[in-house]
Amino acid sequence: MHSAATTATVDHSTRAAFTEKRYLITLAFVTSLFLLWGVAITMGDVLNRHFQNVLHVSKAQSGLVQFSIFGAYAVMGIPAGLFMKRFGYKNGVLLGLALYATGAFLFVPAANADSFAFFRGALFVLACGLATLEAVAHPFVAGLGDPRTSDQRINFAQSFNGLGAVLGPLIGGYFILRAGQAHSNDLESVKLLYQIIGSVILFIAVAFFFVKVPPVQDAHAPVVPGAEAGGYAEAPPLADQPRGKTLWHYPHFVWAVVAQFFCVAAQGGTWAFFINYGIEKMGLPAEKASYYFSLSMVLMMAGRFLGTFLMRFIAPNKLLATFTLGSILMCLIVAQSFGWPSFIALLMLNFFFSIMFPTIFSLGLKGLGERTQQGSSFLVMGVVGGAVFPPIMGLVANHDVAAAYYLPIICYVVIFLFGARFYRVR
């Protein structure tokens, strides 16, 4: 792995290129990783509902599926960053893929044991792989081109995370929740599906082993507010920055970690009980509710592509604050149980959620220079919010799943404050 020691001279009179030709193959491969963990994350929400039926757990207990997945981010965030710093981006990706595949294959003994605890353990190992991939992939893709377009590249890659999030409920709904199939009320379909997933991930790991990765740029060299469309301009070289500062001396980074915690808390809770909302409030079959969940992911993917385009003209923090206000409005409508208007608002939550995670991530890394890799690890640890919030929402959802959607508003208020004010690099 390589990063530039100083900030290169940049001509701000020209528009920065999205990436360079030498990075195209690597960018395509790293972007595919965003798709792969998108599939895994939303498959967890399908498993949430299936375990309620097959293993007879309550909504609050099934929220522990998300606890196992997102809790792994808290455990693996710093080790993944240290591994990446010691062994480089490529080896970090290979470690993440290996853990992902191992967790998938552990679903076989978990299904044989008919054990919710065993499944949570398998999900934890799998999610350690996801956390590693996420810690590596964000600074990796940010470094594959001009620093001024790092926000655009991260949002572009996250658009494919959205595609993976679309595929997850479709795959899970068809293979796991589909009514009338031979194994709709047992764990055989889960076991077979995760054997296939593990095999695919293992194949991709072997393929990436043979990819030659060119030297990666320092995408987050120190920056200061400027006149760029994205809100940033070149800053003095790292050598000119104050020395002896830790990550916690950067208020924008601290706020980004806090905002990321609440961002994924809102995401985890919203997704965990989407299918329950469709079943209980709309009278939909479980399989059809999972397909609507997939449709909401299409809207999220569309939001990310649109957000990537709009960031060429609107500062990322302003777009983040605007989308957050949209999310608050949608939560208020969802909680009213207005029938289809509320269900459409539930679908639209993912559209407004779309740019939040990648934009908070990119804004948080701005100006960290040589501390970028360590900062990425802490931002990934912020994802533990998705472990904490679903069980809390589940306690409310046990009584009224619609009322549970008041809770994410708290999260969106914090994100709005970050986008409106506390994003600034100081």
UniProtKB/TrEMBL annotation:
CDD domains named in the record: MFS_FucP_like
Keyword Transmembrane helix listed: yes
GO cellular component: plasma membrane
InterPro entries hit by this protein: Lfuc_symporter_FucP, MFS, MFS_trans_sf, MFS_TsgA-like
UniProtKB keywords: Cell membrane, Membrane, Transmembrane, Transmembrane helix
Coiled-coil residue windows: none
Primary location recorded for the protein, binned into one broad class: membrane
GO-annotated molecular function: fucose:proton symporter activity
Pfam families: MFS_1
Transmembrane segments: 23-44, 64-84, 91-111, 117-144, 156-177, 192-211, 253-277, 289-307, 319-338, 344-365, 377-397, 403-423
Membrane topology field: Multi-pass membrane protein
Subcellular location as annotated: Cell inner membrane
Gene3D superfamilies xrefs: MFS general substrate transporter like domains (1.20.1250.20)
Name of the protein described by the UniProt record: L-fucose:H+ symporter permease
